[in-house]
Design a protein that fits this description.
By secondary structure, the protein is α/β, with parallel strands linked by helices. The chain folds into 4 domains: 124 residues, Rossmann fold (3-Layer(aba) Sandwich); 115 residues, Transcription Regulator spoIIAA (2-Layer Sandwich), CATH 3.30.750.210; 113 residues, Transcription Regulator spoIIAA, CATH 3.30.750; 55 residues, Nucleic acid-binding proteins (OB fold (Dihydrolipoamide Acetyltransferase, E2P), Beta Barrel), CATH 2.40.50.140. 35% of the residues lie in helices and 22% in strands. The strands form 5 sheets. Strands 2-1-3-4-5-6 form a 6-stranded parallel β-sheet, sandwiched between helices. A 5-stranded mixed barrel has the order 15-16-17-19-18. The chain has a 3-stranded parallel β-sheet with strand order 7-10-11, sandwiched between helices. A hairpin with a 5-residue loop joins strand 15 and strand 16. Bound molecules: S-adenosyl-L-homocysteine, iron/sulfur cluster and FE3-S4 cluster. The site of iron/sulfur cluster has 10 residues, from helix 6. The site of S-adenosyl-L-homocysteine (SAH) has 17 residues, from strand 13.
């Protein structure tokens, strides 16, 4: 019987993309997917290091998998991704049950490493950053049945925001050749995928490795021409690099969804400076204005960190004020946590945990009221949704608007994978209800 693998994924969409990549490599190496970790002969934990909580989650899962291995010593256990990159060989010393540790740019070596383990059981640690990102796989059949999928267009980040571990664990920015990305898009569409999200830590600094003038908007223009592809999204773009050309794309490219995730992080210039974000509150507001001018219905979402070192009440109020001014469609909010080796870790005036919690609560409360108000404003309107599948509760179908809002509609299986016009009949905090027209 073929050996079975199980991959658990934590962290951002890049990791989801990487796990799909690993899954394809394993299928090519004649492994089969296991239903549960208990049935697996190989378990891969794909980890995230962005916040303390993410790290804790990964280590607690690792603990459970190590316990599983005690009962089944033949189990091969590996840690990959951002924590693997950060901790490297220290992990093998601390957890002797681990068989391999693969850093973010080395995951493509998984099949070779499994062969090594088979030959002589040797432990492997590979965390070289010099390697280019992994070559394409495009395994036929892998994406069948999916309505939407991710495509990584670049690895790494050169920005070094003072709180952030990503540039250390994902390395220097490297863009993939545009031909490769286009081929991958065409492959996904041939598998039935209708919507792709282009991924990068800062997609707006994408530049084709062999043509300096071919930048992110050029890629968007080409991708939106791929026949059979219905929708294109991207994430994330950095406000300091939001070019006029990219803004204009929202007015020109019909398949480009009217949604942008544009992390602002804080509303006070003093904090933005300490964060090394390299834009001001004013500049951010201008970006939003231009985007709304070009595409009035555009949804804008953001990330906010509360309790960055030195953030006082006045700074925090500036963030709340920015929320009221802009009225984001939604946001992700986080309490600042120290990351080893970052500039912010060494800063003074760390904010008390209790104050961070209070600020997070106030921020989320305000945003909830804004999101709800915006969602309610949509009742009675007609919107196009791409139907993705069965809803969480299983009794309805679920889809998303171009603005990335979830809409649940009554069952009709024929609609999966199709763009359907619906009348919005109900609005909640996290979803809308619709009736197909
Ligand atoms: N490349 C993206 C986001 C990367 S990480 C960007 O530039 O926006 C995702 C989010 O995690 C960040 O936007 C930030 O809000 C949050 N984050 C990163 N480091 C953090 C830290 N040390 N503490 C709390 N939140 C953090
Ligand atoms: Fe981190 Fe900043 Fe790079 Fe985003 S742009 S990944 S927040 S360093
Ligand atoms: Fe986490 Fe690495 Fe993504 S640190 S957020 S998995 S790039």
């Amino acid at each position: 019987m073929a050996r079975q693998f199980f991959i658990t994924t934590m962290g951002c969409q890049m990791n989801e993309y990487d796990s799909d990549y690993l899954g394809q490599l394993l299928l090519d190496s004649r492994y089969e997917p296991a239903e549960t970790p208990k049935n697996a002969d190989l378990i891969v934990i794909n980890t995230c290091a962005v916040r303390e909580k993410a790290e804790q989650k990964a280590f607690s899962l690792l603990g459970r998998m190590l316990a599983l291995k005690k009962r089944k010593p033949s189990l091969v256990l590996g840690l990959v991704g951002c924590i693997a990159q950060q901790e490297g060989s220290k992990l093998i010393k601390r957890f002797p049950g681990l068989n391999f540790v693969l850093g973010t740019r080395e995951i493509g070596r998984l099949p070779d490493i499994l062969t090594d383990i088979e030959i002589d059981g040797r432990k492997n640690v590979a965390t070289d950053m010099g390697h280019r990102t992994h070559p394409p796989v495009n395994r036929p059949g892998f994406f069948k049945g999916r309505v939407k999928s991710f495509i990584s267009i670049m690895e790494g980040c050169n920005n070094f925001c003072s709180y952030c571990i990503v540039p250390y664990v994902r390395g220097e920015e490297v863009s993939r050749p545009s031909e490769e990305i286009l081929k991958e898009t065409e492959h996904l569409v041939s598998e039935g995928v209708k919507e792709v999200t282009l991924l990068g830590q800062n997609v707006n600094s994408y530049h084709s490795p062999d043509n300096g003038t071919y930048r992110f908007p050029s890629l968007l223009r080409e991708i939106t021409q791929v026949k059979g592809l219905q929708r294109v999204r991207f994430t994330t773009s950095h406000p300091k690099d939001l070019s006029e050309d990219l803004t204009q794309c929202f007015g020109q490219l019909e398949k480009l969804c009217p949604h942008i995730h544009l992390p602002v992080q804080a509303g006070s210039d003093r904090i933005l400076k300490l964060m090394n974000r390299r834009y001001t509150r004013e500049k951010y507001l201008e970006c939003i204005q231009s985007l709304r001018r070009v595409r009035p219905e555009i949804a804008i979402t953001t990330d906010i960190i509360v309790g960055f070192p030195g953030e006082n009440d006045e700074d925090f109020n500036m963030t709340l004020d920015l929320l009221r001014k802009i009225e984001f469609d939604n946001l992700f909010s986080f309490k600042y946590s120290d990351r080893k080796g970052t500039l912010a870790e060494k800063m003074q005036h760390k904010v008390d945990e209790e104050i961070k919690s209070e600020r997070l609560y106030a921020l989320q409360k305000l945003q909830k009221s804004i999101t709800l108000k915006k969602n309610r404003g949509l009742t009675g309107t007609e919107m196009d949704i791409l139907v993705e599948g069965v809803s969480k509760r299983g009794d309805q179908l679920t889809g998303r608007t171009g603005t990335n809002k979830i809409v649940n509609i009554d069952h009709n299986y024929n609609m999966i994978g199709r763009i359907v016009k619906v009348l919005i009949t109900g609005a909640f905090l996290n979803s809308l209800r619709g009736k197909p027209l």
